[in-house]
Description:
Layout: H1 2-7, H2 9-22, H3 28-39, H4 45-57, H5 62-86, E1 90-91, E2 94-95, H6 97-122, H7 127-153, H8 158-185, H9 188-212, H10 225-228, H11 234-242, H12 245-257, H13 262-274, H14 277-296, H15 303-317
Antiparallel strand pairs: 1-2
Helix pairs in contact: 2-5, 4-5, 4-8, 4-15, 5-6, 5-7, 5-8, 7-8, 8-9, 9-14, 9-15, 11-13, 11-14, 12-13, 14-15
Amino acid sequence: MQKSQAILAEELKVFEIKFREAVKSNTPLLDRIMRFIVNRKGKQLRPMFVLLSAKLCGTINETTYRAASLVELLHTATLVHDDVVDESLERRGFFSTYALWKTKISVLVGDYLLAKGLLLSLDNNDFQILKILSDAVRLMSEGELLQIEKSRSLNLSEAVYFEIIRNKTASLLASACSAGAYSTSQDPLLTQKLQMFGEKVGIAFQVKDDLFDYGSAAVGKPTGNDIKEKKITLPLIYALNKMDAQSRRECIYIIKNQNRNKEKVQQVVEKVKAAGGIAYAEQRMFEFRDDALAILHEFPDSPTRAGLEELVRYTTDRAY
Length: 320
């Protein structure tokens, strides 16, 4: 992401200052937790998509920085809440908020981040930006609940899988791009075009994440973790449809009843690989990546477009 970071060198410095200001609290415990979260934040991928999308459509302004902060606030809130739901003790190689402050405080911290994001937009009359991001939060919740519902029955089609990840993951990246575009253009057509671009990238991003579950690289979660959690992802969906009846029954039995047995889970992983599930998921991932690049290439060539292209390729080429 070096090209993208170089293009946004000054803007990212400004964003950093504004984001730290946005999460400040007068409550000492909350302010301490906010500093902990800010100091351990990730690669700032979503704010970079906001800033580059804005730059692609106009000149970055205060509304753009607020949109980037809102996206990061909402994303961070969902991560804090996710760690509570998953009882996860680790986030990005460090202790999670849940590990250090447990359930009650973590839930309140997530709520605080959501409230700060809403107020950041409302206090500055960024109503359209808020609408774009609020719709993403709704879709994320619907996607998460749909995944929980389907994981109980292990009855998941490819169409439902894409509906889940379109809502659960891609909606936030789509809203990041569309909010950035709107902040500098106020053009509904440009906003919609960047929304579609972000959605395609977000879907490719999630398929890549799901593929990590079948690899051997150290990516922050062990191989087979999705299977242990009864999450039915694209490699498994494809493989189950290609297996003979006996192998299919064996895999479903393991996922339902032996999903905590490492050896049994590894058997499912190997069956998915043998049935071509990995190759098929990679093919679909690259299709969505190329769809995103096709939308991007409708814009004139520029350093900003090149920076966005680098981010798109990063989502599918990353090692973690």
